[in-house]
Amino acid sequence: MAENNLIHETSPYLLQHAHNPVDWYGWNSEALKKAKDENKPIFLSIGYSSCHWCHVMAHESFENEEVAQFMNENFVNIKVDREERPDIDDIYQKVCQIATGQGGWPLSIFLTPDQKPFYVGTYFPVLDSYGRPGFGSICRQLAQAWKEKPHDIEKSANNFLDALNKTEKISTPSKLERTILDEAAMNLFQLGDSTYGGFGSAPKFPNAANVSFLFRYAKLSGLSKFTEFGLKTLKKMANGGIFDQIGGGFHRYSTDAKWLVPHFEKMLYDNALIPVNYAEAFQITKDPFYLDILKKTLDFVLREMTSPEGGFYSAYDADSEGVEGKFYVWKKSEIKEILGDDSDIFCLYYDVTDGGNWEGNNILCNNLNISTVAFNFGITEEKVREILQSCSKKLLDVRSKRIAPGLDDKILVSWNALMITAFAKGCRVTNDSRYLNAAKTCISFIEDNLFSGDKLLRTYKNKTAKIDGYLEDYSYFVNCLLDVFEIEPDPKYLKLALKLGHHLVDHFWDSENNSFFMTSDNHEKLIIRPKSNYDLSLPSGNSVSAFAMLRLFHLSQEKKFLEITEKIMESQAQMAAENPFGFGYLLNTISIYLEKPIEITIINTENSPLCKSILLEYLPNSIVVTIQNPDQLSALSQYPFFAGKSFEDKTSVFVCKNFTCSLPLHTIDEVNSHL
């Protein structure tokens, strides 16, 4: 079987194409030089391993000998994994948005040898169909235009470049005041689906930062409708097919408004961002329902997405054996056979029918209360719970013997950092040491494998780490170091967070436009130096940097960090108020800044009811550090946050706000009166 240059790559997505008849290259100097030397246009194809339409286009076009031969003769063909190179993806997605009004993957772009785009689209069928040009005929037309009308192509490329440069300069500076949050909350609430929760109609994505913002705003404004909407969203998601009812973890999005039929891939970042919402919901309501979903999700990641070295894998495909969802769905007859007499209870609770709820199969989902099922069968609720639990375990055992969806086992620093945060928050509300251990092990793994000198790298696979870290890698990692530090204040976490914070300011900051670039000043030069400003399926590097620097300022009192946070927030606050959907994470940061963080230090954890009551309280605008022993405190006394505090022989709590601190507090009532 023939192979191309991708055989030397580590990305599972690129390796999927290593045996195509297309003579693919990775994005590297060799490929870019070849385009210039031979004066050939570049065909750039960007996707990722769990992307369904990427597989379809590969199968139809890139495995087709005739199409491949034409591509090889007329273009230099480059494949990029968007998860490894978010900078390249960001630039050309923006071009696609400019040209077609939408983006997506696979992204198909034709470039001049100096990387300027002149034709762009997403998925193309191999033959002309439904009024859409086929990939074969597009290649022929563009190859011909390249030879016969080079001026037209140059003009088109320059127009794209001008438009692209304009998109990078956004900023209407505004004052940071409470009205920003009021306007954003009302605008976001209007996008909400009052029946099923979530925002907009189908397809529906679990927008974690937006749910967090509604919770924060409810606390700030005292308006319970915002909390109720957030809780409804989380409840509907947890009961729908987007949540894997027996295996735990969330699928990527729902294809319908009801959260029933998911797009079945499972991404690490969703299973890192969403549990934080359930931790918040548990703190707000104390309802164990939310804690249960949090635990099932974190346990899924521990069981199925954790590498032996302690890093976390990137994603599972939507399809197995070439069929989307096959791994996750059930026939009723199959369930009856496995569960016997208990199947009636299980099928009633999880809405399993003979006809199925999707393409003749059943996606497990839940619309009934346990009490209804108990009443129906004349047994106790406790008994129903027991039966459902043992049935789920039996089905999970059977399911684990099916052919599993493909796993993308590369390890990305930014997504791993989000997961570390989720485990830290999970440990805080469950007190389960497995979660804290998973977070600490992953931090050590990154320290040992993903640094090159003082620089952070992006991606790791097969014992190889490569590609310089992006803004999101640094900012998410600083943030998760602080999340773990709050629970276990080992000075090394704070030291590393401060060091990386300074590195960001020195190498990524754009002082002209008051925001961070996506790439450092010594990163490979592309046609522009991109910025990431929107919080979409992942929070933007700028939003997370603003939050991380605000926290670093409060711990260290280094003014520089506060100035940078303020500049980012001021340059984007107006856009966030008008378009809150794309700025959820930034709005959470603005909210903390305006409320002024409450600094809570718990010294000596022997009074566990007191510690627990603080950790289980919903205090979104706080920095809570738990000091377990005198050594920790003396090692931290050089930092302003801890200065002047002494270790006592009983649990004492200091609450500081607006540069004034309480005396040591010793009871729950005393603490509450200061909060």
TrEMBL record:
Gene3D superfamilies: 1.50.10.10, 1.50.10.20, Glutaredoxin (3.40.30.10). SUPFAM superfamilies: Six-hairpin glycosidases, Thioredoxin-like. It comes from the Archaea. One of its GO terms (biological process) is carbohydrate metabolic process. Pfam families: Thioredox_DsbH. Residues 4-164 form the Spermatogenesis-associated protein 20-like TRX domain. InterPro entries: 6-hairpin_glycosidase_sf, 6hp_glycosidase-like_sf, Ssp411, Ssp411-like_TRX, Thioredoxin-like_sf. PANTHER family: SPERMATOGENESIS-ASSOCIATED PROTEIN 20. This is Spermatogenesis-associated protein 20-like TRX domain-containing protein. It comes from Candidatus Nitrosopumilus koreensis AR1.
